[in-house]
């Protein structure tokens, strides 16, 4: 049924880069067979899932939507997908993204843009736009994405979905193609909070293959969802409601959602996080710096694209990178290399790390007063395709409200909370303290 749905709508939406129909039919029939024998099935048996194409799947092309990896077939499986297949989930295909997950609209993909299923003239958000569009258009039940600065929550907001970015280290990054290693985290797109809780339970947990993956037990999120939220304190970050740059329709939907939570017994508290406004500037030093180091591996030698007809060794690398990477990726590498160079590293990279600590302290102070924080997820609803393609700074502003949670490593979730007058979804963001996914899932579940 889902494969038919993909045939029907994906020519218009273009959520998928590759559809693994044969494997899906084979895996599904095996599950049917086990079921008919009365075998006890694992928790996700038969659930059709799509995976962002920067998460390695053994034997299946993983391109990062880049010419650089157009022909790359990973010889190993990522930890998250290994866990999904063990739990019985079925892979339907790999989804489109901004090249190397750098972007907010899925327009920097080397293989064509993805459209927003709610209105095909709009972007689905990014960088996990394909994963979001696939769930929103009912081409799969759930999908995985990655979130470095908002790439799950922002497209979830634009596509009317639940989008969860877990705590940094909650989920293994083994097999996720690295963009900015201190910020990257894998998470999910689903229609409901209960589904997000179920998926997190499957993909979370320690992994010796990822040294930053936390060695802590994974709670049963599902059983926590029902617990009462009466008496919980919800902090509204006042800097995130600054009318300057915030669509009034978004502000009003999120304020309405806050009042609803109040009517469910929560206490609303106004919180100030003055360093928040430096989030974007800080992120656009740290993320490109880490990216410039991570992307050094694509040298045209070991694997990935190699330029043809090149005469000497030195130009193999420069030509392969010039031809294999798109302009946004090249821009990030240039910014990062500059920010890390001798003479500038203290002024830019070190300074950014110091501000990162200050942002983290704002959160610490906030969580001394409240249980969860509430903000809009994005200052606007989904913008028109092409609207910001020539204006990177405008594109970067889309992540104004999502970036701070990545800089501090905190869990955060997007929950749909209404529509604008053109019928486009609006999302709100709940941010929790370190490893407190349960809390944000619980509040989100009661709101839903
Ligand atoms: N839009 C942000 C960027 O371009 C975040 C991307 C992400 O979270 N992968 O870097």
UniProtKB/TrEMBL annotation:
It catalyses: L-glutamyl-tRNA(Gln) + L-glutamine + ATP + H2O = L-glutaminyl-tRNA(Gln) + L-glutamate + ADP + phosphate + H(+). PANTHER family: GLUTAMYL-TRNA(GLN) AMIDOTRANSFERASE SUBUNIT A, TRANSAMIDASE. Residues 1-441 form the Amidase domain. GO terms for molecular function: ATP binding; glutaminyl-tRNA synthase (glutamine-hydrolyzing) activity. This is Glutamyl-tRNA(Gln) amidotransferase subunit A, mitochondrial. GO terms for biological process: glutaminyl-tRNAGln biosynthesis via transamidation; mitochondrial translation. InterPro entries: Amidase (IPR000120), Amidase_CS (IPR020556), Amidase_dom (IPR023631), AS_sf (IPR036928), GatA (IPR004412). GO terms for cellular component: glutamyl-tRNA(Gln) amidotransferase complex; mitochondrion. The gene is MYN1_Chr_186. The keyword Protein biosynthesis applies. Allows the formation of correctly charged Gln-tRNA(Gln) through the transamidation of misacylated Glu-tRNA(Gln) in the mitochondria. The reaction takes place in the presence of glutamine and ATP through an activated gamma-phospho-Glu-tRNA(Gln). Keywords: ATP-binding, Ligase, Mitochondrion, Nucleotide-binding, Plastid, Protein biosynthesis. It is found in: Mitochondrion. The active site is at residues 52, 127, 151. Belongs to the amidase family. GatA subfamily. Subunit of the heterotrimeric GatCAB amidotransferase (AdT) complex, composed of A, B and C subunits. The keyword Protein biosynthesis applies. Its EC number is 6.3.5.7.
């Amino acid at each position: 049924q889902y494969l038919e749905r993909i045939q029907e709508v994906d020519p218009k939406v273009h959520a998928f880069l590759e559809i693994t129909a044969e494997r899906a039919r084979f895996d599904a029939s095996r599950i049917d067979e086990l079921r008919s024998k009365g075998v006890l099935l694992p928790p996700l048996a038969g659930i059709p899932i799509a995976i962002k194409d920067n998460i390695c799947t053994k034997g299946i092309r993983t391109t990062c939507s880049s010419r650089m990896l157009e022909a790359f077939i990973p010889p190993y499986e990522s930890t998250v997908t290994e866990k999904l297949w063990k739990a019985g989930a079925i892979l339907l295909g790999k989804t489109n993204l901004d090249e190397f997950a750098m972007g907010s609209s899925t327009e920097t993909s080397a293989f064509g843009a993805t459209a927003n299923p709610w209105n095909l003239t709009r972007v689905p958000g990014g960088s996990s736009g394909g994963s979001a569009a696939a769930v929103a258009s009912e081409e799969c039940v759930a999908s995985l994405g990655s979130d470095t600065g908002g790439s799950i929550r922002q497209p979830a907001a634009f596509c009317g979905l639940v989008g969860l970015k877990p705590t940094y280290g909650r989920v293994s990054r083994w097999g996720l193609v690295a963009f900015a290693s201190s910020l990257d985290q894998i998470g999910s797109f689903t229609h409901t909070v209960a589904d997000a809780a179920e998926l997190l339970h499957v993909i979370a947990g320690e992994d010796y293959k990822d040294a930053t993956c936390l060695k802590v037990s994974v709670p049963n999120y599902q059983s926590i969802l029902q617990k009462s939220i009466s008496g919980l304190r919800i902090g509204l970050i006042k800097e995130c409601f600054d009318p300057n740059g915030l669509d009034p329709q978004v502000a009003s939907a999120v304020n309405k959602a806050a009042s609803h939570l109040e009517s469910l017994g929560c206490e609303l508290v106004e919180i100030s996080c003055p360093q928040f406004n430096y989030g974007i500037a800080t992120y656009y030093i740290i993320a490109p710096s880490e990216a410039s180091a991570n992307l050094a591996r694509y040298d045209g030698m070991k694997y990935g694209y190699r330029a043809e007809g090149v005469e000497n060794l030195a130009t193999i690398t420069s030509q392969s990178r010039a031809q294999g990477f798109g302009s946004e990726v090249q821009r990030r590498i240039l910014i990062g290399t500059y920010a890390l160079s001798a003479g500038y590293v203290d002024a830019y990279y070190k300074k950014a790390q110091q501000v990162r600590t200050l942002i983290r302290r704002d959160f610490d102070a906030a969580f001394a007063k409240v249980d969860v924080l509430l903000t809009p997820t994005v200052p606007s609803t989904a913008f028109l395709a092409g609207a910001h393609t020539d204006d990177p700074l405008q594109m970067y502003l889309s992540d104004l409200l999502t970036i701070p949670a990545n800089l501090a490593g905190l869990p955060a979730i997007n929950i749909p909370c209404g529509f604008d007058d053109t019928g486009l979804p609006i999302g709100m963001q709940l941010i929790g303290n370190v490893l407190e996914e349960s809390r944000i899932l619980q509040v989100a579940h009661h709101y839903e």
